[in-house]
Amino acid sequence: MKGATDLVVVESFTAVWWLAEEEDIANAVAVMRPSVSEKQARLIAEVVPEDGRVWILPDGDKSDGRMAESALKLISPHRFVRWVKLDDGKQPTDLNTEELHKILPGV
């Protein structure tokens, strides 16, 4: 994945699997927790080139703010980061192909 121009960061392995298998988006990683650690942020910044983009796609629940805010705080000083907010109760896996490509243009 070195040099991933666009990287989608989600909360769970299920979302990574769904993005890769069902939507053909291979450049996705899961933080597997409700926040991004400093080590995870460093690894993300290493994988995405300076002119790349990091798309934060958390679940639409109470923990989404913590995950997105920690990602923005730790990654945005190094890379472009966009927080893609989902409606309350929505998961990335609830999106159809058209919705997904609308909120993740160019991915």
Q: List unreliable stretches of 5+ residues.
A: none
Percentage of residues in strands: 5-15%
Mean pLDDT: 93
Straight-line N-to-C gap: 14 Å
Radius of gyration, CA atoms, in whole angstroms: 12 Å
Shape: globular
Order of strands in the sheet with most strands: 2-1-3-4
Question: Mind describing the biggest β-sheet?
Answer: 4 strands, parallel
N-to-C SSE string, H for helix and E for strand: EHEHEHEH
Q: Total number of β-strand segments?
A: 4
> What's the helical proportion of residues?
25-40%
Number of helices: 4
Can I get a quick summary?
It contains four helices and four strands; from the N terminus they run βαβαβαβα.
What does this structure look like?
The chain is 37% helix and 15% strand. The chain is an alpha/beta fold and 107 residues long. The chain has a domain at 1-49 and 74-87. It is globular and about 30 Å long. It starts with 5 loop residues before the first strand and ends with a helix. 35% of the residues are buried.
Helix/strand layout:
Layout: E1 6-10, H1 13-23, E2 28-30, H2 38-47, E3 53-56, H3 64-75, E4 80-83, H4 97-103
Parallel strand pairs: 1-2, 1-3, 3-4
List keywords for this structure.
4-stranded parallel beta sheet; 37% helix
